[in-house]
Specification:
Shape: globular
Radius of gyration: 13 Å
Number of strands: 11
Distance between the termini: 37 Å
Amino acid sequence: VQLQASGGGLVQAGGSLRLSCAASGSIFSTYHMGWFRQAPGEEREFVSAINWSGGSTYYIDSVKGRFTISRDSAKNTVYLQMNSLKPEDTAVYYCAAKRTYISSWYHEYDYWGQGTLVTVSS
């Protein structure tokens, strides 16, 4: 499966962005999808994940109540709606896909998008 992330940009603190990750090349609906981020000098960090059906979602504590992950199987796309953005959300955001079981461990994901930069100014 090939993944193409988009939607990043520069936003002021308190603003919103919606990231998109378009999938192609395989049966999108059979994959669990995750969003990760990596700030300069930091390790890649799990942000959110959604299972293949969209029925289960997971978030790190720091984004709960602010970020929402969703998927549209008709469009082969997973989204990350990010509200009330904070400067500490600044990072390159990556989408990833895997099968079998959902996970927050980045090394368990098989396919990765190219990343999209989110910059939140204070």
